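F.,

This is the one I mentioned.
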């Protein structure tokens, strides 16, 4: 039941109807509360707010007021933000004394989900904040990749690829969060061994303004370390590459087929206990279908 309501996004929060599916919806009751009684939420997935955009929103609020109320929940004599932290920050900057709010009863375990949905719908999260929010939902809130996919309306592979970006070093994540490189650059960098090889390619991207495609070409050409040279090489046979792509699509994760003489190995990545369970279930389902 919760997932159906969450999947509806902000209109579900702003609706005055009960959470029961099929309940008649009415206009939400909007109250005004003093700004000094409002507190941010620790569950807010967004960590960076662009000062210039907050200033622009503050100016708009001075001229037109707040067009959409904040969504809050009661916490003692205070009101904690469920959705609308940008409007709250801008309202403070505009020196408003009171702001319009819709008060909702939102359980602790749903706070991150609501905040994540609001930010995703408004496209307010940077790739690192988004990946970290997905990670928290999966590792700390014990949701599966499939549940997160349903919750935010993204395909499962994109959820997995987003979380994989968190494997990058802090300087690269900072550049990704600041928009100096894109998630496509980040995924290409993950193909390069961590440490000096990856850092060199990262610096080339920054210095040369490399496209994602060019970065991918360079990533494929990076020479492996001596330790990696001892491993089986990845097959370059087009038929093998096609099989890899089919497996990636089926399993929702990176798959590599290594050949050595007449034999070889299949390498399947997973990114946590829940993801392992998901991949294993897909493999078993495939075995049952073929059986």
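My design for it:
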């Amino acid at each position: 039941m919760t997932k159906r309501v969450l999947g509806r996004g902000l209109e579900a929060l702003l609706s005055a109807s009960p959470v029961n599916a099929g309940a008649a919806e009415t206009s939400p009751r909007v109250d005004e509360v003093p700004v000094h009684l409002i507190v941010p939420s620790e569950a807010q997935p967004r960590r960076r707010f662009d000062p210039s955009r907050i200033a622009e929103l503050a100016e708009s609020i001075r001229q037109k007021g707040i067009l959409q109320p904040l969504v809050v929940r009661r916490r003692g004599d205070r009101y904690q933000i469920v959705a609308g932290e940008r409007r709250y920050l801008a309202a403070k900057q505009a020196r408003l004394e009171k702001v319009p709010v819709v008060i909702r009863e939102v359980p602790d375990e749903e706070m991150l989900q609501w905040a994540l949905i609001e930010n995703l719908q408004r496209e307010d999260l940077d790739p690192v904040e988004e990946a970290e929010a997905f990670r928290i939902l999966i590792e700390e809130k014990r949701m599966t990749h499939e549940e997160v996919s349903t919750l935010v309306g993204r395909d499962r592979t994109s959820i997995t690829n987003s979380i994989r970006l968190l494997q990058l070093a802090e300087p690269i994540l900072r550049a990704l969060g600041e928009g100096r490189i894109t998630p496509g650059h980040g995924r290409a960098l993950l193909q390069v061994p961590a440490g000096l090889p990856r850092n060199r390619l990262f610096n080339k991207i920054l210095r040369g303004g490399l496209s994602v495609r060019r970065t991918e070409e360079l990533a494929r050409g990076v020479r492996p370390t001596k330790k990696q040279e001892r491993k089986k090489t990845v097959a370059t046979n087009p038929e093998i590459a096609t099989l890899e792509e089919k497996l990636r699509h089926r399993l929702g994760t990176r798959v590599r087929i290594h050949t050595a003489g007449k034999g070889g190995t299949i390498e399947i990545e997973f990114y946590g206990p829940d993801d392992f369970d998901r991949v294993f279930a897909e493999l078993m389902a495939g075995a049952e279908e073929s059986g």
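The chain is about 50% helix and 10% strand.

Talk soon.
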